Structure formats: C-alpha cells, structure tokens
Amino acid sequence: MTPDSAANANVASHTLVQWVADSARLTQPDNIVWCDGSSSERERLLQEAVKSGVLIPLNPRKRPGCYLHRSNPNDVARTEHVTFICTPSAEDAGVTNHWMAPDEAYSRLGTMLEGSMRGRTMYVIPYVLGPVGSPYAKVGVQITDSIYVALSMGIMTRMGECGLSMLGDSDDFNRGLHCTLDLNPERRFICHFPQDNTIWSVGSGYGGNALLSKKCFALRIASWLGRDEGWFAEHMLIVGLRNPEGHTRYIAAAFPSACGKTNLAMLLPPPALGRWKVFTVGDDIAWLRVGPDGRLWAINPENGYFGVAPGTSAKSNPNAMRMLAHDSIFTNVAMTPDGDVWWEGMDVEPPPELFDWQGDQWRPDSAAKAAHPNSRFTTPIANNPVLSPHVEDPCGVPISAIVFGGRRATTAPLVLEAKDWLHGVFIGATMGSETTAAAAGRVGVVRRDPMAMLPFAGYNIGDYWRHWLAMQPRITEPPRIFMVNWFRKDVHGAFLWPGFGENLRVLKWILARIDGRVEGRETLLGTVPEPAELDLSGLEIAGEQLRLALAIDRDEWKTEMASVGKFFDRIGRSVPEQLRELHRALSNALETDRS
Ligand code: OXD
Ligand code: MN
Question: Which ligand 1 atom minimizes the distance to the CA of 77?
C-alpha cells in the first residue's frame, strides 16, 4: 500500500481514520504507510530494513528468509519499572502495578510525542488477535515509527487487510501508539489506559514493550476486558496431548517469562513415550472462555512466537530448532562469520570466532556471553512442525487441566494437584518464581508471581483473583488445577528432574489423575504422585533423586506460607477473604498437623 493511503486502504471506520489523523498531527511523520499484510509489502519492508541497517540478512543457504536485528544495548528486555496502568484511581491498578493518572500520562507522553516522527515513516498496522472470524477475536491497530516493529507485528499477529475488514465501520479497536524516540531510558514509558482501550509506548523497541499486541493488549488490556466481559486473558501456553489411543486433551499452563513455556508447548516425546504426540496451540498467551458445555475453551490470540533463544537446542526443543531454520527474525543473538546464528546452550561448539550480540569480535575464551541472555527469535506459528490443526478453530480447544509453574530451586515439588478450584486459585495466586533476564533487573531472585501475571495483570491483582473465584459457578465442567516445578535442585545445585521432553511423563500423570487412574498421595498441600505412578520407562533416575523432586518439606513450606502472608499484607484489603482463610488454614495445619 502506498503512503498516505487511508482512502485507498478502504478504511471504513471513521474513528480509525480520525485517530490516525490525530496521531499524525501530534507526531508529524514524513510519510504514513497503511500496512496491508501482503507478501509484496513484507518484501519491500524487509529490503528497506536491510538498506537502513535495521536488519542484517543471514546466510540464505543456512537460514533462508532469516534476518538478525541488533538492538540498542540499553533496550534488551521488558522494563517493568516504567510500565504503568493509567486508571482514574491508583486502587484500580493495585500495589503490584505502577500507576499514573491518565491525564498526567497523556500529557507527559504527549509532550515527548510532539513532532517525534519528523523525518520518519509512520506505519499503521491493523491486526486481529485470535482466529480471524472468531467471535472471540479482537481488533487492534498499532501505529509505530519502527520498521522492525512493523515487520515483527507481521509475524506475531494476523496483520493487514484482515484487521480492517474485521473492524468494518466499528470504533471497537485497541489503539496502540508507539514511538522509539531516541531510546533514552529516561524517556521510556509504557502506559496503558484500559478505560480508553489505548496504549502509548515510547522510548523502547524491545518486543514486550513495543509489539503492543502482545503483553500490552493481549494481556494487560485484555485482562481488564476479560473481567468486564466474563473471560480470562492469561500468560499461558496451550498444548494438545494425543495419547496412543488417539484421544487428544489440552492443557493450559502458566509459567513466568523465560521459564520454558515455548519448550513445553512444542515438546518432543522421549522415545519410550514415542506413541504420544504433542501439538502446540499457543506458547505464551491464552484467552479462555466458558463454552456452552460449561468447559473452559482456549484460543491463542497470537500468530507467531517471540521466544528466548539461549538454551534452545536440538536437545531441549528440536521442534523449535526446525521452525527457526527459515523465515525468522533473530534479535541480539550472536552471528557466525558465515552468516548463521549462535547462542549459548545451542549445544554446538561455538566456532573459533563469532560476532557477539553487539557486533563485536568474540572468541570462546571471551568472558562475556556471545548472545544476550534475553536474545530472541520471532517466527510465524506456521513454521512450527507440531502446530495443532485446531489453532484456527474459532472457539478454540477445551481445557482439561490448568497448570501453574515456577522456577524454584527448592520447596515446590515436581507436581502437585490442587484440592479444588479455590485451592487451585490459591496455588496460582501465591506461586513464586526466580526472576529471569526477560525483564530488566536482578536475575535469580524469588518473587511472588501470581498466575505468572505479576507484570501483566491490567488491574488490581486482588480484584483479578476475585474474578478467578467469581467465574467458578459458570465453569460447570472445570479443568483440574495443578502446580509443577521442573527446576528443583539438589544440595550440589544439580537439577533433580531431567526436564524438557521428559516433562511429558508428568503431564501423563496429570491426565491419569483426571481419568481417575491414579490415586496419588494426599498431603496438606495437595496430591502428589506415588513414585510408581509416574511412567519412568526408558528414564534413568535414582529413586532418591525422584523422592527429593517430589518431596514436601514442612519447614520450607512454613517459610513459603510466611512469605505468602507478607505478600497478601502488601496487597491489602483487595485480597479475597476466601484466599486469606485458606492461607490461615494451611499455615495452621503446617504448624499443627503431624500426618
Ligand atoms: C515474553 C515475556 O516475551 O513473558 O513472552 O517476557
Ligand atoms: Mn511471556
């Protein structure tokens, strides 16, 4: 589509035309390009991005259709400290979010945006979250001055004409205004205005801050819409598991950023479980609705993966390695002299020389990492060799189990089943996990990360828990709720459980519980497997190691409950009383019960 072509683009929504005109008046771009999502447009944008140095083409024989992007070194992760929920009252945002009054946010960012696109091109990107035509899909339009963002949105969303035709003449779309400014961290703000279905993001080109469809719309704004409209927007993968008898069930699992959601979503079964098949519906975000049958049904709002590269290997995620072979954008990975990519944990020896993520010469004896720990790949879902055939189903897939997981070296057992919905919500609400490189700040510190939504709930977390509880009566066939932890370590710091493909053994136990085929062992904190109930065929794991992986240590859990109590106190009166009560009951039982 040619510049300044709103008329040619057949934009029926007067509100959209007006909003783009207002944004252009504010930012004063030299050109406006309405993106149509065609392959010719993509080719043109790719060529421009290469010409301007934003993308480096990789070796077409090794990585056809692939490009490398190097970001500003100060702009490599989500920046939670400058991410704001802008609601009329601070109480609506709650203590786990940063809050700014809407007027103040519009005015502060408005000043930064004034004339900010002078000399630049404004891309107008209409997109659909969810299968096109699904009654659950939603339309967003992002304005950006970043060609890298425009190209990435073309991978991550169903982008272009489909967005405009789904919108028609309606004014019901998310308005995302993004401008990179000068990438000065002092002028970096990601502001959400849920009442206006609007996002303003300035000063960053990093995916989680700048691809506004993802964390900003599909989680923060959507969680707000979900509360009002009676559904859930969650930081969850969606995976289908087909058993050897040919029956497929679906699990939705919430893990914090960079804790293995993508790996679990496209897991390759170990040889002993080779008759099982795993299908990916989504790897990061799930929108869950109650179906007419009283079950929860999930769609993946996205159309691509924005995954963490380091640690991805033929061993940890062979399906991901296959999908990254072509038509992907890599950000901040290392580059080999012959134009291929490399990162730590790829499990192939680094060549004697590399260009590190900043483009500098790197040798295997260099002290620094070659790839940034939060370096990423952006790749279309269609590249995934195990993509579920149901990914475009308008009503999604029915969910049999919800799994909450964290990265915990201690305390949390390999798997545990909640007693009921309330207890499951408690487990999700109180989960803890070690921080990762996906967000700026210290790595490896345990923090409470309720439902893996700490950085993504678009409103007061206590009200968000209330919404989970309030939905219960409507979900007459609820999924069962579990907690998992692949990351527990022994005293020497070695992982107790092998993880990756072997995690299917745990998922198999979860399905067996749902089918009533295993009893498990009841504990104060929920039901854990008897070791013999786990299918360990073909796996060498010492009995003691497994016992430790499954163990519930009373002292560790007392400490855990004390930390949960402090977290609840910090959140204050919005914590639902039912969760408070359960916390008291579990804490007392840990003190007194000797079973
Ligand atoms: C992500 C994240 O990029 O959670 O998915 O940070
Ligand atoms: Mn995520």
Answer: 6
Give the model confidence (pLDDT) of 381-410 as tens digits: 999 999 999 999 999 999 999 999 999 999
SS3 track for 469-523:
HHCHHHCCCCCEEEEECCCCECCCCCECCCCHHHHHHHHHHHHHHHCCCCCCEEE
What is each CA distance from 345 to 323, 372, 415, in whole angstroms?
A: 17, 12, 26
| Protein residues whose CB sits closer than 6 Å to any atom of ligand 1 | 78, 207-208, 257, 284, 306, 438
Q: What is the mean pLDDT of the chain?
A: 96
Measured at the CA of 421, the angle between CA 415 and CA 425, to 5 degrees, comes to: 70
In whole angstroms, give the CA distance from residue 106 to residue 319.
44
Q: Are 317 and 424 in contact (CB under 8 A)?
A: no
- In the reported structure, the alpha carbon of residue 235 is separated from the centroid of ligand 2 by a whole-number distance in angstroms of 6
CA distance 595 to 584: 18
In angstroms, rounded to a whole number, what is the distance separating the alpha carbons of residues 407 and 34?
42
Ligand 2 centroid to Cα of residue 284, in Å, is 5
Cα(34)–Cα(123) distance, integer angstroms? 6
Mutate to test the pocket of ligand 1, among 80, 152, 190, 215 (most ligand atoms within 8 A of CB): 215
C-alpha–C-alpha distance, residues 453 and 458, integer Å: 9
Contact between 120 and 48 under an 8 Å Cβ cutoff? The reply is no
Does 259 participate in catalysis according to the annotation?
Answer: yes
Residue 282 identity: G
Q: Does residue 532 carry a pLDDT above 90?
A: yes
Q: Tokens 């914090």: give the residue.
A: 256
Write the pLDDT tens digit of every residue in 455-486: 999 999 999 999 999 999 999 999 999 999 99
Other beta carbons within 10 Å of 536: 15
Would you say residue 521 has pLDDT above 60? yes
Kindly list the protein residues that place their beta carbon closer than 5 angstroms to ligand 2, a single-atom ion: 257, 284
Residue nearest to atom 1 of ligand 1 (CA): 257
In whole angstroms, what is the distance from residue 42 CA to residue 63 CA?
A: 17
Atom of ligand 1 nearest to the CA of 256: 4
Residue 412 near residue 406 (C-beta atoms within 8 A): yes
Closest CA to 159 of 69, 50, 39, 57: 39
Distance (Å, whole) CA 23 – CA 17:
10
List the residue whose alpha carbon is closest to atom 3 of ligand 1: 208
Neighbouring residues of 231: CB distance < 8 A, sequence distance ≥ 6: 136, 287, 288, 289, 290
What number does the ligand 1 atom closest to the CA of 207 have?
A: 3
Query: Quick one: angle between helices 577-592 and 421-430, nearest 10?
Result: 90
Q: What's the gap in Å between 256 CA and the centre of ligand 2?
A: 7
C-alpha pair distances (Å), 250 with each of 272, 374, 379, 386 = 21, 29, 23, 14
Helical segments of 202-291, H only? 207-210, 222-229, 261-265
Q: In angstroms, what CA-CA distances link 578 with 166, 422, 430, 465?
A: 41, 8, 13, 10
Q: Give tens-digit pLDDT for 87-132.
A: 999 999 999 999 999 999 999 999 999 999 999 999 999 999 999 9
**Looking at residue 196, what is its pLDDT?**
98
Residue whose token pair is 């008898």: 245
Atom of ligand 1 nearest to the CA of 306: 3
Which residue is closest in CA terms to ligand 1's atom 2?
257
